[in-house]
Amino acid sequence: MATGLLLAAAALRAGLALRRARAARRPPPHGARRRHLRVAKPAVILLCVGFAGGLASAVWLRGMAPLRSFHGLLGVLALALFTFAARQGFRLERGDASARELHARLGASALLVGVAAAIAGLVLLP
Q1: Fewer CB within 10 Å, N- or C-terminus of the chain?
Q2: Taking the model in full, what pTM does it have?
């Protein structure tokens, strides 16, 4: 999960570089879009796999009730936000510029909630 969140943070950084360039009405930094896509896609995949692994670990290895902790609830919210941000990102890739603002807000919110879920999960470590 930590790797997924670090990749998501790198994707956010690249996305913010694109946003700053657009706001200043100048060309984006060389390779910023490619860098954003190169790290964002694996980040979402890793986060989805990490969510499934965490859920399986909680239920089968620790005997916990699924999603009954604050960490679990934040994890569900983070996964939903990352998934919706990815969906808007796919729309952007296809040329739908109307998805840009929603994609940015969802992505930033997803990372914030994901970090909060990671912090909340520290108390669950053995």
Answers
A1: C
A2: 0.91
Q: What does the alpha-carbon distance between residue 34 and residue 63 come to, in Å, rounded to a whole number?
A: 42
List all residues 6 or more positions away from 77 whose beta carbon is below 8 Å from its beta carbon.
Answer: 113, 117
Q: What is the mean pLDDT of residues 25-45?
A: 94
Q: State the total domains in the chain.
A: 1
DSSP string, 79-120: HHHHHHHHHHHHHHHTT-GGGHHHHHHHHHHHHHHHHHHHHH
Q: What is the DSSP letter of 35?
A: H
Token representation of residue 1: 């999960």
Residues 80, 26: Cα–Cα separation, whole Å = 33
Give me the domain span that covers residue 62.
Answer: 2-124
